[in-house]
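User: ok so my PI wants both of these folded by tonight, can you help

Assistant: No problem, let's get them done. Here's the first:
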Amino acid sequence: MAEKRYFISHAGADKPVAIALKTELKDDAWVDLHEIEVGQILIEEISSGIEAASDFVLLWSSSSASSEWVKFELHMAFIRYLEDKAIALRVITLDETPLPLYLRPFLQNRGAASVAEMASSLRSSLERSTVHRLFFNRNEEINALEECLYSPDRVAAWVVGMGGSGKRSVAREAARRFTVGSGGHIELSIDQGIAEPELDLLISAALGVPPASSETDIATLQRRIGEHVTRYVETGGVWIFGNAEVWLDDDGTFGRLATLVMSALLRAKGSADRLAVFTSRRAPTLSEQWARVTDIVRLPGLDPKFAVPMLRSRGAKGTDDQLLMIASELAGHPLAIEIAAPQSPLNAQQLAQHRLRVATDLIPEGRIDSVTWRLLELLAVVDGPMSVRSLADELGIDSELMGRAIAEAVEYSLVEYGEVEHLQLHPLVRDYYLRSFRKQPDSIEVTSSLATRSSERLKLLPPESPEFVLSLVASFKLLAMAGRFDEARALRSGMFGTLFAVASEFFHEKQYEKCVIYIDECLTGNLEIDRDPLAIKAKALAHLGQIDAARAIGDELVEAFSDSPRVLRDRGRVEYIARNWGDAVGYYERALAQRRRPNPNVLTDIAQAEFRRGRLDAAGAAAKSAIDLGGDTPYTLTLYAQVLEGQGRLADAEKVVDRAVQREPRNAAYRHRLGRIAQLRGDRRKAQEQYEMSVELDAHQTESWFSLASLALEVGDRDRAETYLQSVQAQPGLSQPVLLNLQARIALMDGKPELARTLAEKALVERRDAQNIVLAIRTTIQCGEVGVMAHDDARAAVRRLAKELESQGKLAEVLDQARMYPKYF
């Protein structure tokens, strides 16, 4: 086939327009002249035509919108566009049929009067650039950054705001306004896997200079990094470090790398307008030294007058009043607005139901196709450059399915483009999909396959390119996650930060054995640098039951860093895991004493340990102090509610846990706690409602299934109770004492006292609490009543159990049975 510049995609009904446009373009266009029914005969020819074309022209109309053939051609072109930007996408609308969101950036001509006008617009214009996220008014924040830039004292600004609030957009826009030319600013995205070796690689690639060798010692790397940072700002360049919260210690002060970069900025000479911008979800705690040279710019939500245009730009429908309500309910959060827009208009009730999902989960559950979900999982684990074709091959899908998946991911704002135009997940949702991926039975095999693909791609890249560095880090991490450590080291030795990031991910996913393996791989022998990895290793070993080894590591860290609140708190956590509540409190109190002001998180730790210790007054005081200091997290509120429940203050407990549920309405555990307190207060309706919502949110919330079964038994609904138990019995980690207790109660209701007593005795073996003792008394009495047990034997057993109940201070629990069957007492 002779090469043509234009490939004109169209529906059969629009073929006359396509042929006329081909003629107007002087035959420099490909139009299939066959009928669509010939099907597969044309696939190879169409594919060749799209490969050869430099411009893909889509004639959009009601006919093409419903044409499967057009969708096929469009997906092929879209894949090629994403793969290497080797084809320009142009859309010409022939009628008023709405254009899909992901095609709007490519709109070339709307409502042209003639074919000649269409051809003219195609010939005269360059490819329309991809529309990036629109930048809405942030003048106040940019002015603050500008004042920081020209202040003779300031060297850094921290732009602080919640995830997805637009911190990076503000930093980029400011840098574009402050500098001239493509090299006026450098943006680096930071994560937990960035230590000195990785940071040197990133900075060297950004500056176009050779990186240090993999054998370079850490002190030399630190010196190199500092020199690069200093020289660049001396030339007038602006650094942007994204996600810089990972460079802060747990008390918010600058960690090792933040201190390194900030010190380098201070050394810059001959430039009053030196500046680095750090974007962070967390505001730093500035010492007196750093407060003099650092500004903190807090980023609130968008003003409604700008949030409404943003909603409209993302396809939202509705009146101004309707959109103002949505903007207000979402607090002007830009990313939440992007995701809510396609669902608009929403009424107040719908917003109340979906607000938290939109603003925090950012995952449109139940709406994403399974193929898209799998793609998002792969992007989460790759976390770096990988071709669309490789991803499609890994998924085992064709270009059409891949195009649909990408389009859907883009539509929901879950995917964005990286520095080298590769697909990547929005950082807010990566962890969610990574955990989803690791739950799959073949996750290790797939990770290894992706590692191989990434490593093969790396071999084809020039070492001096920015893509090489990103691919190197991604390949190293994939090989490490697949357990192929020797191959990872062969790519680049010394990347301990990346290994630590993998170890941390496994720790938070409670995969402690894997965590320990990766920690051992990342240790450097330098206690200052190994402090955080060793602290995680100690906690992981404690979870694995290796308490002595955990304590040995913790004691070594405490001896070396006796004034570190983080080290003392981690040492306390080892004792907490070992169930030594008093020792845990001791370390937590030492950590608290090392801080300049009381810390809500450590107070919550103390409350948690004191509650486990059975000291309700001390637990309540610590939890209340944490809440009063601003640490009113849903977890702390729920913990305080448990304390109040234990003290018998049920009304207060219900108010507190209500606050936790309002803050995090999609948390099944908090819903269960609210239901339990309502049940204790005698509000069966509310208890039932909360338990049902709990299992709807999380089908693995076994306590709520048990509570629902218990409520059903209380009103004599045996069948419903059995149904609830069937929903939960196959789940792992089931509480056997509770299950046996409920099965025994059902057996009693079925008139099978002997079976009920057997089940009750098994429950007692598992857990000798008041609830199971009372049940054992009831079943024993019933066995005596029907003659399964001799009366004297039953009476002796009942008295023995009643005495045990009395020793627990719970004798009142059995008074009803004593009144009904006095002869057994």
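One down. Here's the second:
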Amino acid sequence: MSSSSSRPADWQAVRSLFEAALALPPAAREAHVRAAAVAPEIAAEVLSLLMHSSGGSAADDEFLAQPAALGVEPPLQAGSPGLRLGPWSLVALLGSGGMGEVWQARRADGAYDGEAAVKLLKRGMDSAAVLQRFAEERQALARLEHPHIARLLDAGLSPQGLPYFVMERVHGLPIDRALAGRPLEQRLQVFLQLCDAVAYAHRQLLVHRDLKPGNVLVDGNDQVKLLDFGIAKALEPGAGDVALTQTGLRPFTPSHASPEQVRGEPVGTATDVYALGVLLYQLLTGQRPYGRAARTPAEAAQAVLDEAPTRPSTLTPQDAAVEAPVLRERLKGDLDQVLLKALQKEPADRYASVDAFAADLRAFLGGYPVSAQPPRRAYLLAKFLRRNRLPAALSATAVMALAGGLAATAWQARAAQAARDHAQLQLTAVKGITADLVFRFGDSLSYLPGGPKAQDALLVETERALVPLSRDGAGDPALVGLQAALLSRRAELRLNDTTATPALADEGRALLERAIRLGEAVWATQLRDWRFAQSHGRALQLQGSLWRQAGRHDEALARIELAVQRLQAAQPFAQHDVGGRAAIGVDLANLLIGQGQVLAARDPEAALQRYLQAEPVYRRMLADTAMHAELDAKSAPGEMRTLAYLRHQQATLLGSRALALLRLERLDDARDALTDALRLRQANVADDPRNLAFRDGLVQESNSLALVQLRLGDDAAALQAARLSWETCQALAREQGPNSKWAVLPRALAPQYGRALLRNGQAAQALGAVEAALASWQSARASQAGPALERRLAQLRLLHAELLAALDRRDAALQEARDALQAYQALQGNAILGRDAQLGVAEAAAWLWQQAPMAERADWREQARAALANAAAQRPLGADHAALAKRLGA
């Protein structure tokens, strides 16, 4: 049967018979199909589709667990026991789906003793459209390498010319059966493995589209394996489901489909978010969110469109091992809201990503606020209280006192003259309470997961109450200073290196400008208060850091210099207080680091001088254990310990110094500094694994170390460091959600991670990360255009070319390398990035010298030699580029 002549008639016959059978009661469908006057292969396909789409019960979902029943005759099978497919031999039929068979297979070439699952296209279904779908499935799986996604081992054509692919054989139970009777926490922990797998696939621009219990197996070690990307499809502009459109058959399971799938609309990552919501709903309640009375796939699909999901906590769980009142109480509140958000009918109303969905589940498990709940102050405080009973109790006491004090003071400030003395006493008390909230208890919240959101809510409420008091106090400088410090802390939560929220950057800058303006207005009267002085200095330094990142280097230096002047003026007034002496002293050292970071791009030697001035301050304070004990005794519950803070700052200095050394081509010294910095970061994370600042520092230093090790040629160590950075960042992104800085940070880590993978023979795994980074930086051009961004794109394009070449995509690789070369050439005249661009030109031209057609190679070699000579004229080459020059004969 030729595919070109049979396809339209075959598919129309399959569709007609399939729809007719669906209209019948389930028990009558098989007999109806067998009695139909159609070719045997059409009947077999319809029976297979009915088995795969018979209403969404747990048994129906177990595609890979069931045999290919329903009486399919052996001659219609695509495979047979003993059939050799490359090095694999088929053993037994495991299951049959809409377009393929799944076979147990064993390795037959003697290379090793292995078992696998083979998916083979059925006879009679090898039309051009179906072959294309099968090819897309194979390509999709080849791009996926994740511990919770069934791994692709091999692929090819059978002796009959039918495509097949070989996947790892998974021994396990469907997730609903595997988790039956388990505690809620265990169910969520296992489900989060599935979320990680789906989120990973989304980052590779793939959606699954058919997430259901039978496609998620759990092995004996409680490890999830996601199966069957048979209807996964790359999310590419303009790509369409040609075969599906022509036939009218939409491949989904009605009980787990999203509204847009039922309506036949385009699908995206929100479709998988919805399906995950349905699956988790079933895992927790044992029931569907709606359509529980549906008896046909059509009724189940209609329920998806028409019925609102039942609030989970109102249902009686179907699992006899679970106590209904206990489970309902656990579901009530956060999990209700999380599930209902995932099951919103409109894609835009659901979680923006699987990572955001998973972040709320992790927040629930950790006792933190979930984003699905409105951020009411009472809710945030209740969450904090449960997690941190002592510090939260003290914070709550302060808030209650503040609320009472503010109300009393506001009323008394408007009372008769006779009550003004009492009002002044109350106002003084309120200042003390507010100062504790802003200064004393601030850091105990800032760097805990969920803490920034809770802290900001408290600060907003406090600010609302302070504004009228500032007016009633006739511009009391102390109150204005408190308001400036409060605004500064709110700005830090949005802008600093750890808690930054990219989507709130504009709001953060506006808050910071207000804080600085108010602080400058009262500086002359408030500089004796070292806590205010420290806050104002931090605000000025933060603004300088932002200007440095925007390329405004001269303004950044001037702003940091103003901060130095301010703190030096305040320093004499802090000497009577051990906390003041330490705080102002270490912040002056921090400002030296800030100056060095601004100078590093243009004058790395001057930057090193600033770091050398700062380092003795940290070393002296690190050695002063008596000071540590005194400061810790006076600290707020939950506040960062003195030793940990000093280790954190020392690591920041070492990491910054390493980057300056790197610009000076002192690679060995840079590696040593980063090794010391990473040791400090790891010590802090070991002591406090929840602290966001400590983990973020680990990401930064391990990424920089990977870069240096790559340049030194230590590829195995580079991959170890790059993987630590990448995986820590991914964990932070999952926890903190899609609006956190860690959600976009992988695009900055991808060059080191991707190159380390490439150098260690893992080009296929690197490709997805690099392509995702390229897409992210390209989309950022609209708002972040500039030389620094173009350099990042050039760097990634050259790496992308090397990866494509390693994967035998030679023509695309050559074009990408040429594009990278042009991008680097356009940056050679830049005052700051020029030398880096010349080295980039040299690397790209040298690669083309080795890879391009022979007629072009002499020109590429000359370009590479000239670029290296230009770079060497500005500063001696590093060992790696010197070796490159030697290979080129320069």
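The first helix runs from residue 3 to 22. The two ends are 64 Å apart (CA to CA). Good luck tonight!
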